[in-house]
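Researcher: Structure for this, please.
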Amino acid sequence: MLKSICLAALVLVISSPSYSLIECKESPDISNGKRWLWRDVDSRKCWFTAQPGQRRGQDQPREELHWPLVPVPVVEQPPEPDPAETRAPWELDHRWLITPPGWSHKE
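Model: Predicted structure, token format:
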């Protein structure tokens, strides 16, 4: 039973069509002298170089076109304060250090 499942999976992998992914460009690069086509991918114009025999962008399957991945910017975290330098709130406020005139704290 396990051998037949493995054999079926192997046949599917071998018989599946192999294609390479084509990276979309925002605009055509006409400086390289190649012919450019576009196709609507994710509601944007995906520009790619034409393969031999291609006359329209619809000739290229959408599954083969993809937008490049945008790297996620790394946000730097502020350094954590040194525990030896941190103070209690009442040590930072002058109201707690000096008794105002007229206050004796005696009953």
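Researcher: Any notable elements?
Model: Residues 9-16 have pLDDT under 50 and may be disordered. Residues 78 and 86 are 16 Å apart (CA to CA).
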